[in-house]
């Protein structure tokens, strides 16, 4: 029975459920903030600091506050 259900559901249907999930939307919002942080810090330093450095810096210094502000909205 499970097998028939799996065959009936298309890969696109599963992809659509994922793309519309709250978890994925939250990931996209967080990624946008990290990229914004990367751009700002790169501008300050006059060079591209790279995604990994921006990610680590953002997590250490900004993530908790960002999440708290989103929770309160």
Automatic annotation (TrEMBL):
Protein name: DUF4032 domain-containing protein
InterPro entries (alphabetical): DUF4032
Domain called DUF4032: residue spans: 32-59
